[in-house]
Design brief:
CATH architecture: Alpha-Beta Barrel
Shape: globular
Order of helices and strands: HEHEHHEHHEHEEHEHEHEHH
Distance between the termini: 26 Å
CATH superfamily: Aldolase class I
Strand order of the largest sheet: 5-4-3-2-1-9-8-7-6
Structural class: alpha/beta
Radius of gyration: 17 Å
Number of helices: 12
């Protein structure tokens, strides 16, 4: 049983749900990314997704795209972040936090790095799984095999427009949990979520035993209260990344505290 499998088994037994924040590695630098991850863990976050910056992000809205651009900015040599440096940072952080860490990473990066090498190096850094948003289920067999052999979770996405037969195939290919995209389009904070969201997730639950975690657009305690009854976990990205971006103009200690306070407000709504 993988660490993520164990996490969700424990949560189900305790009748609790997961809060899963997303942070961009290297925005504004890797040291602050590490500080934010530790703060989120201290506040009680359940699992953290760490975005590997990519020059051509898939489905990411303007807030996360901007964070990737900052992390990869050629204007500052320190920002020419390599995957190996991110893994080194996560190796240090994973020993300081209780929550599992997963990477959100483009398949182009994994392919260039080497599938087996990426999984082995990520696992050695204390990472428990990967979300690969641009990996088609029809092309996932090799990475799926490598991940299963290593007990490394390969988390795949289902969207509101995914045909139901294909959604079932994706669920069967995924391990760890299934990432349900709440809205059609890109990531970003929203004031309202689709009326069909609850029904779509309820149907998907009849098709798989995997935990189902909902992401895209979740930014308010009201969203958390609405979706907690049908989800095993809720993923919050843009709202956190936007707060972290303030480190460019505000004291870092204050920004880290604000991120932690925001996460605590969502956790309180999840209780």
């Amino acid at each position: 049983m993988s660490r993520i499998d164990q996490l969700f088994a424990d949560l189900r037994r305790q009748k609790r749900k997961a809060l899963m924040p997303f942070v961009t590695a290297g925005d504004p630098d890797l040291a602050f990314t590490a500080d934010v991850i530790v703060e989120l863990d201290r506040r009680g976050a359940t699992l953290c997704e760490v975005g590997i910056p990519y020059s051509d992000p898939i489905a990411d809205g303007p807030v996360i795209q901007a964070s990737y651009t900052r992390a990869l900015s050629p204007k500052n040599p320190a920002h020419k972040i390599k995957v190996s440096a991110i893994l080194d940072m996560l190796r240090d952080v994973s020993g300081q936090v209780k929550m599992p860490l997963v990477t959100m990473v483009s398949y182009a990066i994994v392919h260039r790095y080497g599938l087996a090498k990426y999984v082995a190096d990520a696992q050695a850094a204390g990472i428990c799984g990967a979300i690969v948003p641009d990996l088609l289920v029809e092309e996932a067999d090799e990475l799926t095999r490598i991940c299963k052999a290593a007990d490394f979770s390969l988390i795949q996405l289902v969207t509101p427009t995914t045909p139901r037969e294909r959604a079932v195939r994706i669920a069967r290919s995924s391990t760890g949990f299934l990432y349900y995209v709440s809205v059609t389009g890109i990531t970003g904070e929203r004031t309202e979520l689709p009326a069909t969201l609850v029904d779509n997730v309820a149907w998907l639950r009849t098709q798989t035993d995997l935990p189902i975690c909902i992401g895209f657009g979740i930014s308010q305690p009201a969203h958390v209260k609405l979706l907690a009854p049908v989800a095993d976990g809720l993923i919050v990205g843009s709202a956190i990344v936007r707060r972290v971006a303030e480190a460019a103009t505000r004291p870092r200690d204050a920004v880290r505290t604000d991120v932690g306070t925001y996460a605590a407000s969502l956790l309180a709504a999840l209780a």
